[in-house]
From TrEMBL, chain A:
InterPro entries: DUF6171. This is DUF6171 family protein. The lineage of its organism: Bacteria, Bacillati, Bacillota, Bacilli, Bacillales.
Automatic annotation (TrEMBL), chain B:
The lineage of its organism: Bacteria, Bacillati, Bacillota, Bacilli, Bacillales. Signal peptide: none annotated. It comes from Alkalicoccobacillus plakortidis. Homohexamer; trimer of dimers. SMART domains: Alpha-L-AF_C. It catalyses: Hydrolysis of terminal non-reducing alpha-L-arabinofuranoside residues in alpha-L-arabinosides. It holds the Pfam family Alpha-L-AF_C. This is non-reducing end alpha-L-arabinofuranosidase. SUPFAM superfamilies: (Trans)glycosidases, Glycosyl hydrolase domain. It comes from the Bacteria. Residues 296-480 form the Alpha-L-arabinofuranosidase C-terminal domain. Its EC number is 3.2.1.55.
């Protein structure tokens, strides 16, 4: 068994975050509207918990994925920052 | 199907070292940060930066030993980055694991605080891959030396007057891979050199742990035992249960077929062969079994949850994971003469975790419940169980504790049919009078707990136990982990 760190790098090398998000969203049906999605993402982009411009540190999700799902809320501790939109 | 088993009360084996139920917490994804450490200013209720809900759950689990800071992270970790005032500690991006910002807020002092709060023995893994002999020597001095020295003085300056007690120290991690891509001959020499300077200060006595093989690399074990047996207390083994054909197709943690269920169990049971064969090699160089085999990374490894950062290794945990935990712990119990410690990967939010968190929410996984149910085996004496079974889907271990109570762990990993289990009791001085049981089960193979429904899979009382004429019989549903108590 090869080193898991190297294998992960290999996984990432040829796959962009957007591709991963698009692939996974293709299986989802409970989605918010495009406008709602953009409003959520705008909040994420200004959030101190956004890592590497892609990942929410509180749930480990790519925000581009989670923000599209209507049944998900913002996991910011003690404060659903998407509640207002 | 019927399963008959015989248990000889006087058929005692080795003591089941409580550390067989140990855990592993690496700086990876959301295991340490968010999972354990949220910082003192967090909205999440915490004790000096460690979140209270996770703390309470881990405390109740009575974790005997906790390995830290890696894993692959250990051989890139420089401990001096993680001491002193937090605002002044180095910040860096953990490229290994998903681009997380590593601000070093969880370092040596925080780890020892965590261990103290949950009552676990610390197991520190030192850096051979990218560290130096001096760095490792100084870390042990910093932690354990109570006299006057540069490192002891530095520790005092950082607010810890008294030295900590540290027994378990790993000299490198996966040095055949992420820890330096070494050949065993080279690592064996490096191990001999590094461990020389892992000193015992005062009354603190370090138990030295050498990096052992990956899976079935028996040559690594042969070389390490041949070259370094007198210098080690233990050798490690890593084995992950991966149902898929490759690292790119490990399989889903939730959406899997019956074939994948069976493949998962088969690969978990492979631990039996690994432990047996590595032990046989160790017997050749160490027939008195002075050197322990420590399985300090094990557990399921599936594809990450959809939409999550792949570098975080975040996966869900079903009743299938509970069965993997159950059979693996059974194997360790049955080999307790050689296996003295094991550390499931990993404690929070990574791979086969005990608890999952999302923001300020937390849930207990089916694996957590197995560890909780199995607590009764810690420090008990292993008892061999003789099976005469039509059913190949049961896996058993048994032990007797100091009160004379016998506990049986029975994993039924069949998917469809219940098993009629009958246990014959032999050799008891005082005939037992009762049997009680706890069961963890589910009505479908992918049942799991979610933040919306956190108690879908949880233990309950096992009903229908019959006790007569020194026989215990009970029907065990498929996909179940059972712990029977006989006294």
């Amino acid at each position: 068994m090869a080193c898991k760190g190297c294998l992960l790098e290999e996984d990432w090398r040829n796959t962009s975050v957007q591709t991963l998000v698009d692939e996974q969203l293709a299986y989802e049906t409970e989605l918010v509207s495009e406008e709602h999605y953009k409003q959520r993402l705008t909040i994420c982009e200004q959030c101190p918990s956004l890592l590497s411009n892609t990942t929410c540190k509180h749930c480990g999700c790519f925000v581009g994925f989670r923000a599209k799902l209507s049944y998900k809320s913002c996991p910011y501790p003690g404060e659903d920052r998407w509640k207002a939109v | 199907m019927n399963t008959k088993a015989i248990i000889h009360f006087d058929g005692e084996g080795a003591l089941i070292n409580r550390n067989i139920h140990g855990h592993f917490a690496e700086h990876l994804g959301r295991c340490i940060y968010e999972g354990i450490w949220v910082g003192e200013d967090s909205e999440i209720p915490n004790n000096k930066g460690i979140r209270n809900d996770v703390l309470q759950a881990l405390k109740e689990l009575e974790i005997p030993v906790l390995r830290w800071p890696g894993g692959c992270f250990a051989d890139e970790y420089h401990w001096k980055d993680g001491i002193g005032p937090r605002e002044g500690r180095k910040r860096m991006v953990n490229t290994h694991w998903g681009g997380v910002v590593e601000n070093n807020h969880f370092g040596t002092h925080e780890f020892f605080l965590l261990c103290e709060l949950i009552g676990a023995e610390p197991y520190v893994n030192g850096n051979v891959g990218s560290g130096t002999v001096q760095e490792m020597q100084e870390w042990v001095e910093y932690i354990t030396f109570d006299g006057e020295s540069p490192m002891a003085d530095l520790r005092r300056k950082n607010g810890q007057d008294k030295s900590w007690s540290l027994t378990y120290f790993g000299v490198g991690n996966e040095n055949w891979g992420c820890g330096g891509n070494m050949r065993p001959e080279y690592y064996a020499d490096l191990y001999r050199q590094f461990q020389t300077y892992v000193r015992n200060y005062g009354e603190n006595n370090i138990y030295k742990i050498a990096c052992g093989p990956n899976g079935d690399n028996y040559y690594w074990t042969e070389v390490l035992m041949r070259e370094a047996t007198p210098f080690m207390d233990a050798l490690t083994l890593h084995h992950y249960t991966i149902p898929g054909p490759s690292w790119q197709e490990k399989g889903s943690a939730i959406n899997f077929t019956e074939d994948e269920w069976n493949k998962t169990i088969e690969r978990a049971l492979y631990m039996e062969e690994l432990v047996t064969k590595h032990s046989t090699i160790m017997d050749k160089y160490d027939p008195e079994k002075k050197v322990a085999l420590i399985v300090d990374e094990w557990g399921t490894w599936f594809d990450v949850e959809p939409g999550t950062n792949p570098g975080f290794l975040y996966q869900q945990n079903t009743i299938r994971d509970a069965l993997v935990a159950g059979v693996t712990l059974n194997i360790f119990h049955n080999h307790s003469d050689r296996v003295q410690m094991a550390n499931i990967a990993q404690t929070v939010n990574v791979l086969q975790a005990m608890v999952l968190t999302e923001g300020d929410q937390m849930l207990l996984t089916p694996t957590y419940h197995v560890f909780d149910m199995y607590k009764v085996h810690k420090d008990a004496v292993s008892i061999q169980v003789q099976e005469n079974s039509e059913n190949q889907d049961l896996h058993i271990s048994a032990s007797k504790n100091q009160k004379g109570e016998v506990h049986l762990s029975i994993c039924h990993y069949g998917i469809k049919e219940a098993a009629d289990f009958e246990l014959e009791l032999r050799g008891w001085q005082n005939a037992p009078t009762q049997a009680t049981g706890t069961i963890l089960t589910a009505d479908s193979m992918n049942k799991h707990n979610t933040f919306e429904n956190p108690e879908v899979v949880k233990p309950s009382t096992l009903e229908g136990i019959n006790f007569s004429e020194e026989k215990v019989s009970v029907t065990i549903p498929p996909m179940s982990v059972v712990v029977l108590k006989i006294n």
